Amino acid sequence: MKNAEIIQQLNLEQKCALLSGETVFTTRGYKKAGIPSITLSDGPNGVRKQAGAADHLGLNPSVPATCFPTAATVACSWDPALGEEIGHAMGEEAAAQEVSVLLGPGLNTKRSPLCGRNFEYFSEDPYLSGKMAAGYVRGIQSEGISACPKHFAVNSQELRRMASDSVVDERSLRELYLTGFEIVVKEAHPKTIMSSYNLINGTYANENAHLLQDILRKDWGFDGAVVTDWGGSNDHALGVKNGSTLEMPAPGGDAVRELLKAVETGKITEADVDARLDELLTLVFDTHAAVENHSREFDADAHHALARRAAAESTVLLKNEEGLLPLAAGARVAVIGDFAETPRYQGAGSSAVNSIKVDTFLECLKESGLNSVGFAAGFDRQGKPDDAKKAEAVALAKKADTVLLCLGLDEIKESEGLDRADMKLADNQIELLQAVQQANPNTVVVLSAGASLETPWLTHCKALVYGALGGQAGAGAMVDVLTGKVNPSGKLAETWANAYEHTPAKDNFAGKGRTVQYREGLYVGYRYYQTAGVPVAFPFGYGLSYTNFAYSDLKADAHSVTLTVKNTGNRAGAEIVQLYIAKPDAKVFRPAQELKAFAKVQLAAGESKTVTLTLDDKAFRYWNTKTDSWEVEGGSYEIRVGASSADIRLTAVVEVAGTEAPNPYAGKSLPHYESGKVQSVPDAEWETLMGCLIPEDKVRIDRNMTLGELNHSRSPICWLVWLVLHTLLTASYKRGKPDLNVMFQYNMPLRALAKMTNGAISMGMVDGIVMEAKGFWIIGLCRVIVEAVKNVILNVQLEGRLRNS
Ligand code: BGC
């Protein structure tokens, strides 16, 4: 143990107290032993430090900071070095604001395009996610503070996010949902990692020994601190035993007593507490020193410039008919769309940054050399039809050579706590596009959205530029791309399906009850579309350029691949070279092809470069559920190198030695997994893959019943609570503005009452509420009252002892 000397000075109660937070975003300190309190703050695309009232939903204001493009955007740059630069800048701002742990990046796998937090995550592909996240972590930690990759793991929906059980087969777990985290842990060594809210195959992530001990600590060698998501602790003692270091936010004295009792009863040992404390103290001392030594200064202008460059390098050109773009200097443009005036540049929830300044498209256009004939808002942002606005826009469109039409998703469509209802652009925006195009066929759609959309309206524009959520400087970046100051070189980090009905998990997303069935297994994103032969609107890895690239001279062996890429056009640009691996004769079923390496090459007009791509330990492996380890099927593999997952330019075949493991699926009937056609896998087949029966999905009256399920209780008081919440929620939906706070409470399990009220509610009180819900009205109520009194007295005594000892 690194901190044995200090730990020896503390009594058990003091030790247990240190393992949970003191306030929403700070840990407990203990002056006499020289242990400082440290601050943790969101978030993934900029610092969200709340100096006043703090919350985990981004409801109260925070200290101004640079808002960088969100992860979904920067992922389109396919440039981990850019991620590292952003991470460095965020780390600098965090340290300047005395933040020791920056809660990000988020790298959950985009299982469905509808996950409300997809804008905060990188990709549907774990390799790309892991590499990008590793860049961020290296950057953040270069400032001496800690990054905190999240949410570990299999947390791919917002519905019931604190109490849903992700039921997933072990192979998909390892290959799809954990590989990104494995890359980040092994390659960037984060000092902390955040456990997710959900359960995985029946056990909460935060107390999951398989996840936190076997995989994270033993297999991957993680030696940092595991931090719970805010309110994500279920059984604190089990968490401590199984590898969770710090419970956040501030569960109060109850959490301390829970640990003390667990040691007394032998549920856990004092050695478990010491082991976790050692991890915590290492983090605290290490990051506190970095914060103390920081100058408290950073260059806000330089960070703004970086944010602009990052957004520009991440912009994806999806369509460019007749070479409409880039626009020549002096071109007469009509700017249409509310987003040009009020940009949509980040998502809602805990990642929302109080930006230092925000550029607008209209302002940035003034310095672009383009000649603007005017601006019209064109549509109502919340989706209401508005003929007057439309007519004004159409009239304006007629006056220009080209229309720059800024469309996108409004703020509430992409938010933490709320999954998207569909993949559609609002009807009023599509109608506007049709009308504008009729008035002026040279229509360029500039799209702001943090996730993929259906694009049945694509034929109504000549060009489509996807800026995703570009951060505070995103507007300027878009102008740079439209005018050709920057060549668009971003490529999609997620597939854009033709229709939501085509997506692989459509029948099992979002799991509404206790369990979420990951029946599609390995076939997420392009792994599904390409294996099952489903056409898509824009494939994974797709993106156009103002120049062209030629690929040649592929040489490959099982370790490394080289090729030449030449810029054959007449302007400089970057190309993202992607390497996919396929095994058409595989005995062990696998997706048609998988991304295993990539590189971004910057090339002047006419320039050629040799690109080397390294094939690492992840290139050929698959998880074998029979041997419980990574294995390699021997034989020949196709190396496919291309400009997107659907635009393979060169191929080679390499021979790879196998590990001779038995086929885990031998003798099993898994036709849907063999063909990849997994949209409707029958129960029996899924059970065969899982190796167990489908878990039941009934509402249960216990600590993990959500407030939104209280209508299933047997208590009028609970019905009333449900009715109030339900009415508030429905009313907020009707207003077209779902109330995130109410939504959070609705999806919150009863136990979270004890975890998120700064000690005001104890687990004993929650147990009283559960009795109440079970129909023991009087006993339940009495228990709540008795436990409440007990809680107040014990808390006062505990805090007194901690202060005075
Ligand atoms: C989110 C985390 C966030 C935390 C603290 C939680 O609700 O899931 O991503 O870091 O709050 O704000």
Overall pLDDT metric:
96
Identify the strand order in the major beta sheet: 11-16-15-14-12-13
Shape: globular
Bound molecules: beta-D-glucopyranose
Distance between the termini: 24 Å
Computed Rg: 27 Å
Structural class: alpha/beta
Helix content: 25-40%
Give the uncertain stretches in residue-range form. none
Hey, roughly how much beta strand do the residues contain? 15-25%
How many E strands? 28
Describe the structure concisely for a colleague.
This protein is an alpha/beta fold and 805 residues long. 33% of the residues lie in helices and 17% in strands.
Strand and helix map with partners:
Elements: H1 4-9, H2 12-18, E1 21-23, E2 26-27, E3 40-42, H3 71-74, H4 80-96, E4 101-103, H5 126-141, E5 146-147, E6 165-167, H6 170-188, E7 192-195, E8 199-200, E9 203-204, H7 209-219, E10 225-228, H8 236-242, H9 253-265, H10 270-292, H11 300-314, E11 316-320, E12 332-336, H12 361-365, E13 371-376, H13 387-398, E14 402-408, H14 427-439, E15 443-448, E16 463-466, H15 474-482, E17 496-497, E18 515-517, H16 526-532, E19 536-538, E20 549-556, E21 560-567, E22 573-582, E23 594-603, E24 608-614, E25 621-624, E26 629-632, E27 635-644, E28 647-656, H17 671-675, H18 683-690, H19 716-734, H20 740-746, H21 752-755, H22 763-774, H23 777-804
Helix pairs in contact: 2-9, 2-10, 4-5, 4-11, 5-6, 11-15, 13-14, 19-20, 22-23
Please name the defining characteristics of this protein.
about 800 residues, alpha/beta, six-stranded mixed β-sheet, about 15% strand, globular, binds beta-D-glucopyranose
